[in-house]
Design brief:
0% strand, A middle domain of Talin 1, 59% helix, mainly alpha, 14 helices, 341 residues
Length: 341
């Protein structure tokens, strides 16, 4: 979900402009202090994921690619994107909007008469809607996704690729995604990454995990056509853990730092275990008449209910010893100002 710090690695410009003389990477003769190490490791991680995202998008949009190849490369691109979405949202807000907007943001404002031309509804979810949407409409005509989108002001049902639309899709919608991501990747090398903001991105990601599950009750889940929302969340978690480990030396240097780091790792492990317990790439089925404000005991015992209850706790920064609580407390101990909500 596209918000200011939705995902694991929210990064920000360290100054108003780009830096003309990049700081050299410390050598063995220059001991690396913890905060400098976090900067280097987060920078490497973001650059690597952005490069992999670009390659997956190019394969997704390659001329003549088969339908199944496009689907597989979309899933691959999606995971790389979810690991670094915060960097896109903060450093490249316009690119983030173009890459990750939902159908409803466009359909509430205007009609999109050509889903293949790279105008109107664009980005990863527009491509997802082309690749999977017609199957969802045929299979789940009474489902939550169909009901939700059909009520939008300028709704139009998804249209499948065929021989007459394939060239427009490749030269329009797909080319637009590749162009946006290439510009982002090329620009990343010229910006200074702020590890403190990266830490806030971890917090933002954890606090939003519960909302991603809750939206499953409304037909508005994140990657709703491909059934990939839980995989998106796994990508968020992987990126968050990478940032945590980049800060490990700095955390251990704090008072009771080893205990803090252990609690954080245990919190990530709880979420990892819960996500592994749900097979596949999508959220577990939502029980009929599930009430997110007052779920029944029976509903809480279902796979979806267990995930919902766990994340309601772990994403709450006011819940003592929750993962969000520990991330906030550790950030304060490192002198990192809290993320505004």
């Amino acid at each position: 979900m596209r918000i200011a710090f939705t995902t694991s690695i929210a990064l920000a410009l360290a100054s108003c402009g780009t830096h003309d003389t990049p700081e050299p990477e410390p050598t063995a003769a220059e001991p690396v202090v913890p905060h400098a190490r976090a900067t280097i490791e987060v920078d490497r991680y973001v650059d690597g994921e952005a490069h992999a995202l670009m390659r997956a998008a190019e394969a997704l949009c390659a001329e003549g690619a088969t339908h199944e190849t496009r689907r597989a490369r979309w899933r691959e691109a999606r995971l790389h994107y979810e690991r670094i979405e915060g960097a896109i949202a903060v450093l490249f807000p316009e690119t983030d909007a173009d890459v990750d907007d939902r159908y409803e943001r466009v359909a509430e404002l205007r009609a999109d008469t050509d889903p293949f031309d790279g105008e109107g509804f664009i980005g990863m979810h527009a491509i997802e809607r082309v690749l999977w949407g017609p199957d969802v409409w045929a299979r789940e005509s009474e489902g939550e996704v169909v009901r939700f989108e059909s009520a939008l002001v300028h709704f139009a049902p998804p249209v499948a690729l065929d021989d007459t639309s394939r060239a427009r899709f490749e030269a329009g919608l797909c080319a637009r995604l590749v162009r946006d991501l290439r510009g982002m990747e090329q620009t990343l090398g010229s910006v200074a990454l702020d590890p403190s903001t990266a830490w806030r991105g971890v917090l933002g990601s954890i606090e939003e995990q519960a909302e991603k599950v809750r939206l499953g009750t409304t037909g508005q889940s994140e990657s709703r056509y491909a059934g990939h929302t839980l995989a998106d969340m796994r990508g968020n978690l992987e990126g968050g853990l990478a940032v945590l480990e980049a800060f490990a030396s700095e955390i251990e240097a704090l008072p009771e730092g080893s205990e803090r780091l252990q609690r954080l790792r245990e919190g990530f492990a709880r979420l990892e275990q819960a996500y592994r317990a749900s097979p596949g790439e999508d959220l577990p089925p939502v029980p009929a008449a599930f009430d997110p404000d007052h779920p029944s005991e029976a509903d809480r015992a279902t796979p979806y209910g267990r995930l919902f209850v766990l994340l309601a706790h772990e994403s709450d920064p006011e819940a003592h010893r929750s993962l969000a609580y520990e991330v906030r407390a550790t950030g304060r101990a490192m002198g990192i100002a809290e993320l505004g909500r």
